[in-house]
Write a structure and sequence with these properties.
2 helices; transmembrane helix; 62% helix; membrane; two-stranded antiparallel sheet; DUF2905; transmembrane; alpha+beta; 16% strand; DUF2905 family protein
């Protein structure tokens, strides 16, 4: 179980490092990404960005 905690921690760390780079490339502002205000907060659901990054990761995994 500790192995999964470490993997999740490292994944979140990498995501936080690469978020500014991905935003410069246009990820997070794609047509399927949802931004809305509810309960006094702004919510963001990156549906299209998640799908594109998932497809890219699976393509890289198949090539490796």
């Amino acid at each position: 179980m500790i192995r999964w905690v470490i993997v999740i921690f490292l994944a979140l760390l990498l995501i936080s490092w690469f978020t500014p780079l991905l935003q410069k490339l246009g990820f997070g502002r794609l047509p399927g990404d949802l931004r809305f205000r509810a309960f006094g907060r702004e919510w963001f659901l990156p549906v299209t960005t998640t799908l594109l990054l998932s497809m890219a990761a699976s393509l890289i995994a198949k090539l490796v």
